[in-house]
Amino acid sequence: MYKAQYFCPIITCFDKDRNIDEAAQRSVYEYVMAGGIRGFIVMGSIGEFFALSMTQRKQMADIAVDVCKGRAKTVIGCGSTRIDDTVELANYALDKGADAVIIVPPYYFALTEPELERWYDLCADRIHGDIFLYNFPGATGSEISPALLVRLLKKHKNIAGLKDTVPGFPHTRALLDAVRPEFDDFCILQGYDDNFFRNMLSGGNGAISGLTNLYPALFAQACKAVDEGDLAEVARLQQKINKLFTFYSIMDPFHPLMKRAMMLKGLPIQPYCAEPMPQASEEAVAKAAALMAEVDAM
């Protein structure tokens, strides 16, 4: 079994004018690392990458590397609908000292498999560092199949991992079955918090969990339980994570509520998200607070 990993897809902290709030951003990194998490996805979906300018995205990469260098792994989100922008940001982040970049397929038009393969071929050929693929068909309309993944790995040594954000587990299992015989060190991370243990037990490497922004210590405990083979603790923590996972159903999109919940935890951040996302209603905040109290009591 591989060493367990939870990556935090860190939120992006804005001030009321939707500028990056650097002091708040640094405070979130410190909070998550204090809880025991040692990997970050910067400018993932929860990081609202789609609403950031290139200047802001480079600023976010700079902050991440400055705070985390030597302390945690940084994987910088570089997804875009323009390959030149993806490559520019990826090489910028890698030159600054990021450990890797993660690239979601172009969105709006769903790509066929040959087009998706060409997209990643072009990225991998032009980016001089490790790349994680981001399979999120619910947002992009295109899917990285097991066969496509194997073809890409045979061509590009710098494709180092994949985040699989697909409901359930069959697709992730199919990816593992396809790559493990030949690419034993390839990193496969589940995109749903509550599939962490199943992914690890099936030969995966862990998960990327939005809830690590809120409860980093809980997910660090999950890693410890797996690494120590403590199945009783695994079962206890699965129940706790299952309960906490219902957070996502309180508000859609959930990003504004995540920031309010983190404020309830005492983090010095502001509740703003990129326009036109709304702020969380007081009713939603009350439901989140009640859920958090229930989880804390478990």
Q: How are the strands ordered across the major sheet?
A: 1-2-3-4-5-6-7-8
Shape: globular
CATH superfamily: Aldolase class I
**Computed Rg:** 18 Å
Q: What's the CATH architecture? A: Alpha-Beta Barrel
Distance between the termini: 28 Å
What kind of sheet is the major sheet?
A: 8 strands, parallel, barrel
Total number of distinct structural domains: 1
Helix and strand string, N-terminal first? Answer: EHEHEHEHEHHEHEHEHHHH
Give the class from helix and strand content and strand pairing: alpha/beta
Low-confidence stretches: none
**Tell me, what is the CATH class?**
Alpha Beta
Overall number of strands:
8
User: What count of helical segments does DSSP give?
Assistant: 12
| Percent strand | 5-15%
Helix content: 40-55%
Mean pLDDT across every amino acid position: 96
Summarize the structure.
The chain is α/β, with parallel strands linked by helices.
Q: Which features would summarize this protein structure in a list?
A:
298 residues; alpha/beta; TIM Barrel; globular
What does this structure look like?
The protein has helices at 22-34, 54-68, 83-96, 113-126, 137-140, 146-155, 170-179, 196-201, 216-227, 231-245, 255-264, 282-297, and strands spanning 5-10, 39-42, 73-77, 100-103, 131-135, 159-164, 187-190, 206-208. It is α/β, with parallel strands linked by helices and 298 residues long. It has one domain (5-228): TIM Barrel, CATH 3.20.20.70. The protein has an 8-stranded parallel barrel with strand order 1-2-3-4-5-6-7-8, surrounded by 5 helices. Strand 2, helix 2 (54-68) and strand 3 (73-77) form a beta-alpha-beta unit. It is globular. The model has no long low-confidence stretch (mean pLDDT 96).
